[in-house]
Amino acid sequence: MTRQEIEREVKTIFQREFEIENPSMDDDLRKTYEFDSIDAIELLLALENFWVYEITQEEKKQAINIRTINQICDYIEKIAPNKKTFTGNEIIYGNAELSSQVLQL
């Protein structure tokens, strides 16, 4: 998944889950949108649902200091390559869709 695709999906989550239209990539989510800890948990759940994998406790701890959408996208880029993503009837390792890494179920 490219950085642009990640940004687009994160913005879509903000629109759908938090009714925040066109959030700025560098706005402080807490100050600008009154984003709180409950919102952060809902965001992590939405990300897990989109990528269809569970974020570990250690990875959740790494997200504690995130304040902007840019930081969210950086975080996703950091943890996504280590995840198995289930999409339909295949397993894709990380964000690479190389034929040697795709297993048909």
What would you note in describing this structure?
A three-stranded antiparallel β-sheet has the order 1-2-3, with no helix packed on it. It starts with a helix and ends with a strand. Mean pLDDT is 78; it is low at 85-105. It has one domain (3-80): Orthogonal Bundle (Non-ribosomal Peptide Synthetase Peptidyl Carrier Protein, Chain A), CATH 1.10.1200.10. The protein has five helices and three strands; from the N terminus they run αααααβββ. It has 105 residues and is mainly alpha-helical. The longest helix is centred in the first third of the chain and has 16 residues, at 3-18. α1 crosses α5.
Tell me briefly what this model is:
By secondary structure, the protein is mainly alpha-helical.
Task: Describe the secondary-structure layout.
Layout: H1 3-18, H2 29-33, H3 37-51, H4 57-62, H5 69-79, E1 84-87, E2 90-93, E3 102-104
Antiparallel strand pairs: 1-2, 2-3
Number of extended strands? 3
Low-confidence stretches: 85-105
Q: What is the topology, as strand order, of the major beta sheet? A: 1-2-3
Shape: globular
- The CATH homologous superfamily is called ACP-like
Termini Cα gap: 21 Å
Give keywords.
105 residues, mainly alpha, Non-ribosomal Peptide Synthetase Peptidyl Carrier Protein, Chain A, three-stranded antiparallel β-sheet, 3 strands, disordered C terminus
